[in-house]
Amino acid sequence: MVAEAEQVLQVAARHASVSIEVEEHAVGGAAIERFSEPLPERTLAAARCADAVLLGAVGAPGLDALPADKRPERALLGLRKGLGVFANLRPVRLHPALVAASALRPEIVRGTDLLIVRELTGGLYFGTPRGVEGVGEDRRARNTLSYTAAEIGRIARVAFEAARARRKRVTSVDKANILEVSQLWREVVCETARAYPDVRLEHLYVDNAAMQLLARPGEFDVILTENLFGDILSDEAAMLAGGIGMLPSASLGEGPGLYEPVHGSAPDIAGRGAANPLGAILSAAMLLRHSLGLPGEAERVEAAVGQVLQEGARTADLARGDETVMTTRAMGQRVREALERVAAGGRVR
Ligand code: IPM
Ligand code: MG
Question: What are the backbone angles phi and psi of residue 179, rounded to the nearest 5°?
Answer without folding.
Answer: -100, 130
